[in-house]
Every structure is written in C-alpha cells, then in structure tokens.
Amino acid sequence: MSGRRMIERRSRIFLGCEGESEQGYGVFLQRLADAATLNIHIVIKNLQPAGDPLALAQKAVLIFDKEDQKAALIGKAIMLDADRLSEAQDRGRQALELLARERFTTIWQRPDHEGLLLRHFAGHEHDDPQRGRSMQALQALWPGYHKNMAAADLQRGLTLEHVARAARVTPELMSLLRMIGLERGKP
Fold it and tell me: Residue 100: phi, psi to the nearest 5?
C-alpha cells in the first residue's frame, strides 16, 4: 500500500446571485459550512446585470446546466429581490414559472437583500420595510453595513445563529440551509 489517503469529493450546490451582495452572502454561507466541517461546495454565480427577474432566471438555468455537466450538483437555489417582481409583472410571473419548473429553491428577498439581512437580527425577524427603506433600517442595527459587503465583513456582523433566525421566517432560506447542512443554527 502506498499510504495515500483518498480525498472525498465535496457535494456541490448551485447558488445563483442577483448581484455582489448576494455573492458575498453565498461565500459567507460557504465559510459557515467549512467551519462546521461539512463536505459541501457552494458553486456561487453572480447573474449580473441585476434587474429583470426573467433574464436572471434564464441565466441561472443556463449556468446551472453547464455546471451540472462538469460535476453533478445536489441542489440549486437563487437569491432575487422581490421588489423587482412588481416592476416587471409579466416577466416576474414568467420567472416564477421557469424557476418552479426547473425546481430552483427561490429566495425572494423582501424587498431586497438588505431587507433579508434585517430579519437576521433578534426582534426584527418579521420586519418588512417598504422599498427604499431597508438599508436605513439595517444600518440602524448594523452601522458598519454597506452594499456589496465581502464575506469577511459579513462574518464580523453575522453568525450562523443570525442566519438560522432569518431562515425560521424565510422558508426558502431554510431550504437552502438544509441543502448545505446548516439548518440547526449552531456550528
């Protein structure tokens, strides 16, 4: 015997991200999975340019198919801002239908990414700020927060417990945590 150790291949999960903020959040989730020694790799793809929900959904489907051909993926999710649905109602409906047909776990951030992050904080799990107000509400709780935060910066303000708190009121986020293996909320 050569004494070589076999390295087990990590299971892969696809996460489509509307923009850089969601991409940083995806990397943050990967770091939480690594800290919990989970054998998971989150394939994080920025779907820029943000905006049109149908274009983002279509792009996610195409990228997922290419990634799945490289090595099988065990799950697929996408993070999109819910406020975009009302802007483009017909394209929003089509995006919903496509993502359902393709069996994506779709995390609709109400009204946007900062609104989702707001629900990570105790006592704010059910906050639902109006469009354009979520950044102000979040910065009142987390003064150092800014758009497009890197995972390392997110880790300074959030823990797995914060993520689990938001997931308890956001079923699709809980589904993503289950895919990853982080649903318990403690490392």
Answer: -65, -45
